[in-house]
Amino acid sequence: MAVKNYNKFFSYNSAGAFEWEKTVDVYFGNKNMGSLEDCSKVFPVSRVILNAETFGPGALEALLNGVFEKEKEAGYFTGLNDKILLQKFEIKNKTAYVDFNSRFNEKVAGSCKVTAIKSQIETTLNNLPDIDSVVLSVNGQTEGILEP
What we know:
alpha+beta; 3-stranded mixed sheet; 3 helices
């Protein structure tokens, strides 16, 4: 069946999808590049996020979504638990204040795992232009977060 009104189904708006998206780097460990020996070693992987005034929440959500299957095959891994929810994200004076649900801290033990998680989050956010430091919290509490 032929479509008679072609213009009805397609937009000729000159604004392309690329104007609504931004590529950012998120950071993961890689067992083939030394992350198992030095837990703070993380490496960039590109992700496309929705363009926004600040890229922090989008980059962090991309990090929380973890590594893709093809990246796993290349040795990438995350120290972060799955199903972590970002509850609040705020930037004040170039410091990102990030609050997660309790899933963030579940079964997080050992200095290497703690170091890896901190490195993934801090490196991802500190590489954005409007962030110089990161303060993490779980359900509004900063005490006892990511302690080995």
